[in-house]
Write a structure and sequence with these properties.
Layout (H helix, E strand, L loop, with lengths): L5 E7 L6 E11 L2 E6 L12 E3 L5 E8 L2 E6 L10 E6 L5 H6 L12 E7 L9 E3 L9 E5 L15 E3 L5 E3 L5 E4 L2 E8 L4 E3 L9 E4 L2 E7 L8 E6 L3 E4 L2 E7 L5 E5 L11 E4 L2 E6 L5 E5 L7 E4 L2 E6 L5 E5 L7 E3 L2 E2 L19 E3 L6 E4 L69
Parallel strand pairs: 1-8, 8-10, 9-12, 10-13, 11-14, 12-15, 13-16, 14-17, 15-18, 16-19, 17-20, 18-21, 19-22, 20-23, 21-24, 22-25, 23-26, 24-27, 25-28, 26-29
Antiparallel strand pairs: 2-3, 2-7, 3-6, 4-5, 4-7, 5-6, 30-31
């Protein structure tokens, strides 16, 4: 049995109930091994939780099988767990604490992948975070994610929540990293950029932001110094299969759904934005932009992005800016104005005809069956999970043409046994809204 090089640890805001267990035997090799309990492992115990022995020494659980917990060092190095009474608890109670341990040489060694899995047991996470660890120990990747059982379905209130009134998540990693499957809700909070990716840095390390749901950010201060946006990129990053909506700014800086800094720093910054949906971006004198990249860099690629309902009564408003890219690669995008450009562009599309619901309070930006975005996209292959849509559906497995936006629409037929009297003549009923 080898030591696991993917080290997953659980993050549960405010904590969960402790599980008490009894260790009967231990098979240990330097820093990892198997711990056998006297009873089957409880369903409330997860990979990434910490086993604490009778001496309060901690061991991260890397695998679970019946009565056996496979573990490795967490709080103490090179000492096997003691037989007897023990307990299991979450590894961390905040994202901040997880990030602070990314260079802990007891937990990680060079080449490890550090995975923080967020659970909703303790409610919303309300904190400000800078994720920049892992360089000293030599991690190969850092991932902040959500276990599959707790992921959102592309609509608000269905997954693990980062309540961004607590502050931003900033990534300035010197190692590759991912943030994925979070719902971030600013709840109308007054703030600057709330998901900042390698901002104002020259790092060439790629940060991937994928399958996140980001919404309801407001700024009323007329003198703030930042572009207001959910995703503000600076250094190298890839943003894919995300939904961004309800961004409001009354200030002198623009409201932005996804965008770069107002002035272009001198940096190498390959930027990819793929299969994202941006809706309802509203600004004042500073303007409003669904997607903005003022630098128009040659190493920027924007494909399969929907940007709609972008308004600024006192300033410039564009779904895409610049509307004509001289350097960046922009194809197969869709806008509600005329600014989507390049091959495969769809312009002047009507918002109400594309999505399940654009009613305030019940926003659902999955595509409807007759959306213009369906079968209008560019096939991006399967690198770095780009083929998995906001419902975690594999676009390539469907064998069809990709759609524009975060959602890949599939017609779902009502089973015969569920048909009503209105269907007695054999007509097939099709759900026109989102599918699962």
């Amino acid at each position: 049995m080898a030591r696991s090089t993917t080290v997953t640890t659980s993050i549960i805001n405010a904590g969960k109930l402790t599980d008490n267990v009894f260790i009967s035997t231990v098979s240990w090799s330097v820093d990892h091994g198997d711990v056998t309990l006297t009873a089957a492992v409880s369903s409330s115990i997860n990979v990434g939780d910490i086993l604490y022995d009778s001496a309060s020494n901690g061991y991260v659980i890397t695998a679970i099988s019946d009565t056996v917990l496979t573990c490795q060092d967490f709080s103490i190095a090179g000492l096997s767990p003691a037989v007897g009474t023990a307990s299991v608890d979450e590894a961390y109670q905040s994202i901040t604490d997880w990030e602070a341990d990314l260079d802990d040489t007891i937990i990680y060694v060079a080449g490890d992948v550090a995975v923080g899995e967020m659970y909703s047991d303790g409610g919303a996470f309300v904190e400000s975070n800078t994720i920049n660890g892992g360089i000293t120990v030599g991690l190969s990747e850092v991932i902040l994610t959500v276990p599959e059982s707790e992921r959102h379905d592309g609509t608000a209130g269905t997954g693990v929540l980062k309540q961004s009134s607590g502050g931003s998540i900033t990534t300035t990693l010197g190692v590759p990293g991912r943030i994925e499957w979070l719902e971030c809700d600013a709840n109308g909070f007054n703030a600057g950029p709330l998901l900042v990716t390698n901002y104002n840095t020259t790092t060439a390390t790629d940060i991937i932001l994928r399958n996140c749901l980001l919404h309801d950010l407001t700024w009323s201060n007329s003198n703030h110094n930042f572009a207001l946006g959910w995703i503000i990129f600076g250094g190298s990053c890839t943003i894919q299969n995300c939904i961004v909506y309800n961004i409001f700014s009354a200030g002198i800086r623009p409201a932005i759904g996804i965008g770069g800094p107002n002035t272009s720093p001198s940096m190498t910054r390959p930027l990819n934005v793929y299969n994202c949906t941006v809706y309802n971006i509203s600004g004042s004198t500073g303007g409003a932009y669904g997607f903005r990249n003022t630098a128009d860099d040659a190493d920027t690629t924007v494909r399969n992005v929907i940007a709609m309902k972008v308004e600024a009564p006192l300033g410039n408003a564009q779904c895409f800016e610049p509307d004509i890219s001289n350097n960046a690669t922009m194809t197969n995008n869709m806008s509600s104005d005329s600014t989507a450009s390049g091959s495969g562009a769809i312009t002047n599309a009507t918002s109400s005809l594309q999505f399940v619901s654009i009613i305030d309070g019940s926003i659902d930006l999955h595509l409807v069956s007759d959306s213009q975005a369906i079968d209008s996209g560019f096939d991006l292959g399967n690198s770095n999970f780009v083929n998995f849509d906001i419902n975690n559906r594999d676009r390539d497995a469907l064998g069809g043409i990709w759609d524009i936006g975060s959602h890949e629409f599939v017609e779902t037929f009502i089973p015969r046994v569920l048909r009503t009297e209105k269907n007695i003549f054999g007509r097939k009923l099709i759900f026109a809204g989102r599918t699962t």
